[in-house]
Design goal:
The complex is a heterodimer of chains A (about 375) and B (about 700). With about 375 residues, chain A is mainly beta. Chain A has helices spanning about 1-10, 35, 120-125, 150-155, 245-250, 255-265, and strands at about 40, 45-50, 55-60, 65-70, 70-80, 85-90, 95-100, 100-105, 125-130, 135-140, 160-170, 175-180, 185-190, 195-200, 205-210, 215-220, 225-230, 235-240, 285, 305-310, 315-320, 330-335, 340-345, 350-355. In chain A, strands 1-24-23-22 form a 4-stranded antiparallel β-sheet. Chain A is globular, with a radius of gyration of 20 Å. In chain B, β20 (about 585-590) and β21 form a beta hairpin. The two termini of chain B are about 55 Å apart. Classes of the chains: A mainly beta (about 375), B alpha+beta (about 700). Chain A: InterPro entries: 6-blade_b-propeller_TolB-like.
């Protein structure tokens, strides 16, 4: 029966073969809030924001920056590999994921702790870290096959090789609590209520319990979700790239995809991206052809900027966008401080600041 | 090349996929389902009944057809106008009785009896027509009522006169001939049926009244708004139907000579099934006489065969009822889904492989190395223009360009700050050219080639070419005239980019990768238009080489420029000049140094190039993905390149950010400046050339005037 259903679907483009993408509607109505947002700092690939007590840090490539709302960014360290994830427990130590290398603890009593139980392939692709008390942390591993910067390849290969690990820093022992995930890219520890994971390739948020069982908290997201951040008034979800009908379609065309992966430079794939429109060698979709010299904001672009505020029930309440004609694309992390929310646009190379209680829902 | 790729290449070369969409876009495609059904019926019963396909069987069928099909044609005409006539069976019976009464009992001559019978039918039809047409009663119930009333009248007549009518027999040879005679071995009534069917078809498809019927059936309100006398039109269809039913009854009477009370009972269901099965739509407006005939043939074949198969009584109506249900279902579903089906299959990509893409990296030795030469280019008509695809100068240096509003706009020399609407053409002007007398020639999308004299008189030169021999869609009409140039002998050569798409969706042609375009020549001496070169991939810019024998043309999606000889010893030959441009060439024009400027409307991108070798991917994409989301050629970055006649590319000029000229569809040199146009832009660009002859104009280069 399932064979018949698959054949029918593939001929008529129904069911699994459907290429529909959820519309940006309701709380997700587009606006240009991210393009209007205040620029706090620029950095080529501003990525993961963390707060350690009174200090803020963010990563950009292999560099670590300290962020001050008044003075902007100042260098705070440089590593020998791109930083793929960052976390702070609030009392000094920083946990740093290095692409291709693994986890590094800087400061505190666990400095220099080596992990056991985590394979090299998994350690090479740490996409998010979350502390659970001073001696425990969770790791999200995007894929056991690709490195963090090769996320588009992982999507195009249709891998579901991600996993989530619990690490005991006292011993360095890592225990896998869930696997076969589609690029987990964000973690959030909820006191007494388990762990929330954003599973990018399945466009959803799931909650994991101790035994690795999951429940879906929010699905059918119109973009690929990334890091999560709890703040005043709700949870902040960064979404790093948009889903597009054409990309969904390409994902369902194995022969074309294999040929593309084999023959074409990754920068020019028909795949989601953190930023786009920089080269004429990039693929273009019909609606993105400029009319009267103007790129329409609704144009189907490969990159997009989207930050969503969720309520306690994980329902979207407000959203902040940078559309096809904007530049603040590839939102990878956020940090709520007082009444403000800091946001990193990895594609736009910027750290932005927006008002947390901004309830705007559409273009003014 | 892999095995699967070579397979794809040959499969798409050999199978003309695009024909499916073109066939589906034809009106006659509605006949296929009933026709297939007819074939199935014939094959089925041929295998069940020995001797099914005999001459005698056909003669018998033809004679029956000569009775029933008249009724079906009448009903079809009513249905085409959006009505229905259920009373035909009763009228048939009434006519049968009347004919026998007039001829057998009263002994009237045929020339009197036949019109009288037809008049009786027409009278009943007129009652229907008055009630339905003028009083606007519901057709179904009204004709159901007349069915009952006329049937009652027939029953009363039979009760009173049956014996008298049946007692006497006419000895008229003509009457006998009407019922049993043959013309060249074909039953007489069938010959008459064919004649009437042809006339009825001509009336419906060629005459004013026929068009009115179809218009009323298609949309009663629109027909009314268009000034058609809706009520009269409807009324007359019922009169025709009544008359045709009576003629059918007349032949029946001539053949059988019986006044049995069951004459014509259930006939309305038979002919209704026949009409709907043939494809005459119940909703009105769609159908034809041929469809009604086809349906009648099917129904008669089925009913006769069922009788010959000795089916138990009741089987025939059962099958008829099922057929009617089937036909109604198919009618509704087909009408509803035909356009969906068409839109799904019309875009039909084929295999096409582009040569290796040349390097464009800044700093490379390639002539295409990107630069920012057009940075700070001056804008003319910024914000006033909408789509200056091409621009040109007259001998007084005034600048002319087109626009989506359907105007040709003139910017006055020397500063091009003031503009005026030169003429309003009503269509979107694309390519422009001047002849020796300053007559402006323009390709107008959707309209053809037009000429505007300096006195602003508009002359249509050509909107039709010869239809190609084996084309399914009518390709004689020029839909997408794109660019033109004028040969020294006065002939106008112009490109029609694609015969499958129009000005609003021309870019979709890029997905097909097939040679859908052609080059056409208009000869002003004979005022004739001929296609001189066809099967080209989006032929776009045209430029005379200057030898009076050949021209250069750009094939946009094929990223190449070719030379075509239209005269001289090499007449008819095509040679590729540049085979591997890094982008999509649009218009091309002469440069002051004897070379040619080529505008590239967009640049090649690796993914799109690759998709050209995977036609099935593009086909599924066109079916499943919304149009705005389709993978497109990159039309957001353009450039200008200079090419010499031997194919050497000497330089390229870019607007890299795409701030002012993302897409360049036209480039023209004039007095040391380069002018840039874009079909999706809102300005004309003006760029000072460093090393160009400051007095050179193309008007002078072409026609030798100052």
């Amino acid at each position: 029966m399932s064979f018949l259903k698959r054949t029918y679907d593939s001929i008529f483009g129904a069911g699994e073969a459907a290429v529909t993408v959820p519309p940006l509607d309701g709380a997700l109505l587009p606006n240009d809030a991210l393009d209007q947002a205040e620029l706090v700092a620029t950095a080529t690939a501003a990525d993961n924001l963390v707060r350690d007590g009174e200090r803020c840090f963010f990563s950009s490539g292999a560099e670590l920056f300290r962020l001050d709302l008044m003075d902007g960014a100042t260098p705070a360290g440089r590593f020998d590999a791109p930083i793929s994830a960052l976390a702070a427990d609030g009392k000094g130590p920083l946990a740093i994921g290095l692409s291709g290398k693994g986890l590094v603890i800087r400061g505190g009593q666990h400095e220099g702790r080596r992990l056991s139980g985590l394979s090299e392939a998994d350690a090479a692709c740490i996409t998010a870290i979350a502390f659970d008390g001073p001696d425990k942390l969770f790791l999200a591993v995007g894929s056991s096959r690709n490195r963090p910067e090769d996320w588009a390849r992982d999507l195009m290969e249709r891998n579901h090789l991600g996993s989530v690990w619990q690490v005991d820093l006292a011993t360095g022992a890592a225990r896998r609590i869930a696997d076969k995930l589609g690029w987990p890219a964000g973690l959030l520890v909820r006191r007494g209520a388990g762990l929330v994971v954003s599973e990018a390739w399945r466009h959803r948020l799931i909650a994991l319990d101790d035994k690795g069982r999951h429940t879906v908290l929010l699905d059918n997201l119109p973009a690929y979700p990334s890091r999560l951040q709890a703040g005043e008034g709700g949870l902040w979800l960064s979404l790093f790239a948009p889903r597009r009908q054409l990309i969904e379609f390409v994902l369902r065309e194995p022969a074309f995809r294999r040929k593309m992966l084999k023959e074409i430079d990754p920068a020019h794939w028909m795949a989601p991206a953190l930023s786009s429109g920089k080269s004429f060698l990039e693929p273009l979709q019909g609606g993105s052809v400029k009319q009267l010299g103007v790129l329409k904001p609704w144009a189907p672009s490969r990159s997009y900027g989207l930050l969503v505020r969720l309520n306690e029930a994980f329902l979207p309440e407000a959203s902040f966008h940078s559309r096809a004609d904007g530049a603040r694309h590839g939102i990878t992390s956020s940090l709520a401080i007082g009444g403000r929310v800091l946001v990193t646009s990895k594609g736009g190379g910027a750290v932005l600041s927006i008002a947390a209680d901004d309830n705007r829902r559409e273009v003014a | 090349m892999s095995v699967s790729e070579s397979f794809a290449k040959w499969r798409y070369r050999l199978v003309p996929d695009h024909l499916l969409g073109e066939v589906l876009s034809k009106n006659w495609i509605d006949n296929t389902i009933p026709f297939l059904f007819l074939i199935i019926v014939v094959v089925l019963f041929q295998s069940l009944i020995p001797g099914f396909l005999s001459i005698a069987g056909f003669a018998d069928l033809a004679r029956q057809l000569g009775e029933v099909a008249f009724v079906a044609i009448g009903l079809a005409i009513v249905m085409l106008a959006g009505g229905i006539d259920l009373s035909v069976g009763s009228v048939f019976a009434l006519a049968n009785f009347a004919a026998l009464a007039f001829i057998n009992y009263l002994g009237w001559p045929l020339y009197l009896a036949i019109p009288a019978v037809a008049a009786i039918g027409a009278f009943v039809g007129l009652i229907n027509g008055l009630l339905v047409g003028y009083l606007r009663l519901r057709a179904f119930l009204t004709t159901l009522a007349t069915l009952i009333i006329v049937r009652a009248v027939v029953d009363l007549l039979i009760l009173a006169y049956a014996r008298k009518v049946a007692m006497t027999m006419s000895d008229s040879d003509a009457w006998l001939f009407l019922g049993e005679g043959d013309l060249f071995g074909v039953p007489f009534n069938f010959v008459l049926l064919v004649a009437v069917a042809i006339i009825a078809h001509l009336v419906l498809s060629r005459s004013r009244y026929g068009w009115h019927i179809l218009a009323v059936g298609g949309s009663r309100r629109s027909a009314y708004n268009a000034g058609i006398a809706v009520r009269r039109t409807i009324c007359i269809t019922y009169v025709i139907s009544g008359m045709f039913a009576a003629i059918g009854g007349l032949f029946y009477a001539a053949r059988l000579g019986s006044v049995g009370p069951d004459t014509g009972i259930g006939l309305e269901v038979t002919v209704l099934t026949a009409a709907v099965l043939g494809g005459v739509s119940l909703g009105g407006g769609r159908g034809s006489i041929f469809k009604a005939l086809l349906g009648t043939a099917i129904v008669l074949l089925v009913t006769n065969s069922l009788i010959r198969l000795n089916m138990p009584s009741g089987a025939t109506p059962l099958v008829l009822g099922l057929l009617l249900l089937l036909a109604v279902a198919v009618d509704i579903r087909w009408l509803k889904n035909r356009h969906k089906l068409l839109s799904r299959v019309y875009v039909s990509p084929t295999y096409f492989e582009l040569p290796q893409r040349p390097a464009t990296e800044a700093g490379s030795a390639s002539p295409y190395a990107v630069n920012d030469a057009f940075h700070g280019v001056e804008a003319i008509g910024l914000g006033e223009l909408d789509g200056p695809e091409d621009m040109i100068f007259d001998s007084k240096d005034n600048l002319y360009t087109g626009g989506r509003q359907g105007d040709i706009v003139r910017f006055l020399a020397p500063d091009y700050r003031t503009s005026e609407v030169f003429v309003h053409l009503g269509g979107f002007p694309l390519g422009l050219a001047f002849d020796a007398k300053d007559n402006l020639h323009a390709c107008v999308a959707g309209m053809g080639v037009y000429m505007v004299t300096p006195e602003r008189e508009i002359v249509r030169l050509s909107d039709e070419t010869n239809r190609s021999l084996f084309s399914i869609i009518d390709d004689s009409r020029i839909r997408m005239a794109d660019d033109l140039d004028i040969a020294p002998d006065g002939r106008v050569f112009f490109s029609e980019a694609t015969v499958r798409y129009g000005v609003s969706d021309w870019a979709v042609d890029a997905l097909e990768g097939r040679g859908n375009g052609r080059i056409i020549a208009y000869d002003p001496r004979t005022k004739s238009t001929r296609t001189v070169l066809s099967g080209r991939i989006f032929p776009n810019g045209i430029c005379m080489v200057g030898d009076g024998e050949s021209l250069l043309f750009a094939e946009t999606w094929a990223c190449r420029i070719s030379r075509f000889w239209f005269a001289g010893p090499k007449k008819g030959k095509v040679e590729t000049v540049v085979a591997d441009l890094p982008g999509y060439p649009d218009n091309l024009n002469r440069a002051s140094d004897g070379r040619f400027w080529v505008a590239l409307a967009g640049m090649r991108s690796p993914v799109f190039d690759m998709s050209l070798t995977v036609p099935s991917f593009r086909r599924r994409m066109a079916q499943r993905v919304a149009m705005d989301e389709w993978l497109y050629p990159n039309l957001n970055t353009g450039c200008v390149v200079k090419v010499s006649l031997d194919g050497t590319v000497t330089e390229s000029l870019w607007d890299l950010g795409g701030a002012s000229h993302p897409q360049i569809t036209s480039v023209r040199e004039h007095k040391g400046y380069l002018y840039l146009g874009g079909i999706n832009n809102n300005r004309i660009g003006r760029h000072k050339l460093a090393d160009a002859d400051p007095s050179w104009t193309s008007q002078h280069a072409y026609w030798g005037q100052p």
